Amino acid sequence: MTGRPKLQSALLGLTPFVALVLIWQVAPSVFSYPAYMLPTVSEVGRRFIELTLNGELARSVGASLLRLAAAFVVGNLIAIPLGVLLAMNARVSRIVMPVAVFLQAVAGIAWAPLAVLWFGLGNTAVTFLVVNSVFFSSFYNAISGVRSIPPVLWRAVRSLGASPWQVVRELVLPGAMVQLLLGLRTSLALGWRALVAAELIIGTNGIGFLMMDATKWYGTDTIICGIVVIGVLWLAVDRFVFAAIERNTVRRWGMVNDN
């Protein structure tokens, strides 16, 4: 997609956000509510500039992104190889899959009480919750991806005398790639949510902590700034990281399409 169609697509994507801002702008003249409940667009804009100039926003975002990146790498370095290894044995995968489904369902913030008991309040507990979310999401998708490979392909590569490493390289990774990429994208999204939620509840810094701290003095403008930053950061990662990876792998290989 290039030129005019790409521009039209971008403008179309911006339309809902523009409409939302317009509704927000006219809301005070239509509804009656205390000023602290929903500050105006200009007030939030001024607060965003203040947080940017004094460095508070950059410090908070930096702390959150660093924690997320570390948890994402650690969680996936363990989850994907382990999930692939277990799923390569059909009998083991059948046993493990229900456990993976269960743990994926309760991953993340549901572990917060235990995290506090084990690690106390602070960054260690927050990081544990994010790694937990990332790990179980990628673990489940790795197993699911390998199990989705047709049995006939397994028999074919083994009949050709492929070594275990060749099976992984020539069959497992290409065959499970769509699900593995889905796992990476989902794990980052769930990790991002768990991170913000954990910072809101038990964190001592980061974007979530900044938002929760603002509630002490009814800083709704700061809270909305945080919400916008969280959404924009995720859109940027999804657009410029995962969409690019998908475009250069599974879409180029014809494994998925836009239909």
Automatic annotation (TrEMBL):
Signal peptide: none annotated. It holds the Pfam family BPD_transp_1. Residues 61-241 form the ABC transmembrane type-1 domain. InterPro entries: MetI-like (IPR000515), MetI-like_sf (IPR035906). Keywords: Cell membrane, Membrane, Transmembrane, Transmembrane helix, Transport. Gene3D superfamilies: MetI-like (1.10.3720.10). It is found in: Cell membrane. It comes from the Bacteria. Its main location: membrane. The chain crosses the membrane at residues 65-88, 95-119, 190-211, 223-245. One of its GO terms (cellular component) is plasma membrane. It is a multi-pass membrane protein. Belongs to the binding-protein-dependent transport system permease family. This is ABC transporter permease. It comes from Alsobacter metallidurans.
